[in-house]
Every structure is written in structure tokens, then in C-alpha cells.
Design goal:
By secondary structure, this protein is of the alpha+beta class. The protein has five helices and eight strands, in the order ββαααβββαβαββ.
Length: 185
């Protein structure tokens, strides 16, 4: 079974902008570093790595190279304007599940770019035989929850006082999931 149901790259219009979609490669490291570090600090606060550290970016690219992470990127004028990652695990009891992480440049939010990136990852997840995708976010990240709800995710769990915010206060962690087997492209 193919791991990608589509041939990349391909392009689409988002307002006045032509955006090319393709799979991220390890040699996109500098492009990705520029993009991820250009995002507002709150967009990256709850990532599992500190993207201000070069070693974290190196590890991210290692995940791309190893195949543990598959990432679809959106590129405009040789600059990344969004990404959507699918993280998988080969542990037998959880290999049917993937984790999704995504971010879109503030200039492209509200144009459907996140929906397009997510749909690409949903199709890839299905082609890989995954059955469920999950996402995690702090309870205060209401915009992220709204985006994932609009994609068809629903809340599965709330872990009380599970994360600390930038002010050092604890907050709840929301776990949301999506049934990939029901996705129709």
C-alpha cells in the first residue's frame, strides 16, 4: 500500500496566493527553521520540543528522514507558510493510531490552508492503514480546538492540571481524536 495517495508536488490558489504542497524533506531544514521560528511564541509553546534550539530542529528532521514523521508542507515563493505532521509509532498496540500536529502562518489563517493540509494528512493516514488520529492541546488553546473540531475531531479526554503555561500555571490538556476510517476524500 502506498504511503501517499497523491503525487507531489501540486498547487492550489488561496486568495491571491499560489501555494505548492509537497512532502517535507530533511534538506528543508533551513526553510522549516525559518518558518517555525517566525510563528508567534504561543504557537510553539506547547510543542514537544524547543524549536529555538538547533538540536530540536535536527531531531525533527531525523524524524522526517526515518519515516517516523511524515510532513506535508505548504510553500509560497520558496517560503513555508504551513505544515501538517503525522507522527506514527510501530509499537504493536498503538500502530493503528497517528498523532497530528499542524501550524499555519498567521497571514494564511482563515483561508482554508489548514483544512487542506489536514485533508492531505488524513488521506496519507488512511493509505498507511491508520484508523485514528489524535491531537493534544492546552485547554486555553480555544482557537486550536475550534480548528480541530471543524476538521471533525472530537474531545476524548481532559487531563486536569497536566501542563504548565508560559506563566508557570497549570492547565488542563485536551486530547481530541478523528476516525480516519470514516474520512472520504
Amino acid at each position: 500500500m502506498s504511503t501517499t495517495p497523491r503525487t507531489y508536488p501540486w498547487a492550489s490558489q488561496f486568495g491571491p496566493s499560489s501555494v505548492t504542497f509537497r512532502l517535507m524533506r530533511a534538506d528543508d531544514k533551513d526553510l522549516f527553521k525559518t518558518f517555525i521560528r517566525s510563528l508567534p511564541p504561543e504557537d510553539n509553546f506547547y510543542l514537544l520540543v524547543d524549536v529555538q534550539k538547533d538540536a530540536a530542529i535536527d531531531n525533527w528532521m531525523h524524524g522526517i528522514e526515518s519515516g517516523a514523521t511524515l510532513s506535508v508542507i505548504a510553500v509560497e515563493n520558496n517560503q513555508i507558510v504551513g505544515y501538517c505532521n503525522l507522527h506514527t509509532n510501530e509499537t504493536p498496540w498503538i500502530r493503528h493510531v497517528g498523532e497530528i500536529r499542524m501550524s499555519v502562518s498567521p497571514a494564511f489563517r482563515g483561508r482554508g490552508l489548514g483544512q487542506t493540509l489536514a485533508n492531505e494528512v488524513f488521506a496519507i493516514a488512511r493509505a498507511r492503514g491508520l484508523q485514528k488520529i489524535w491531537a493534544r492541546m492546552a485547554a486555553s488553546q480555544k482557537a486550536a480546538q475550534n480548528v480541530f473540531e471543524s476538521l471533525g475531531f472530537h474531545a476524548e479526554a481532559l487531563l486536569a492540571d497536566f501542563v504548565k503555561n508560559a506563566n508557570g500555571r497549570t492547565e488542563d490538556l485536551v486530547i481530541m481524536s478523528y476516525d480516519v476510517t470514516g474520512f472520504v476524500n
